[in-house]
Amino acid sequence: MTILNIHIKDEDKAKLQDLVEINKLKSISKLVRKLLSEKIKIENISRKNDNNSAMEIPDYIPENKYVGFLNDAIISVGDTVSEVAQVAVEKFPNGPLVIKYNGPKKKSLEYCFMSLTDLKCWKYVS
Fold it and tell me: Are 43 and 72 members of one domain?
């Protein structure tokens, strides 16, 4: 057994105590162990899914379709990402989902956000 000695601010310690009471656990230590084990599981799944590029779409899948993979198996094919995701969530809510597009690579979208609260406009005449 390893003992960890970490410094936590008093306000964070109070928040942790609240979480202990909400989850009806015995102690903060038990909560920290639970959080760490969940984080380790998430990291293991993400490392396992680092080979997403190795998953190839079979030839029998029609062009311009989205394909949903779960643990290297095809679970859904659809016209949109939302269709594929909806099927995946209904059938396999806890699985690591990968969605790929069977077609030419699409351009990535770039977004620009602007705050309109301070916008001032003037009329220009040329």
Answer: no
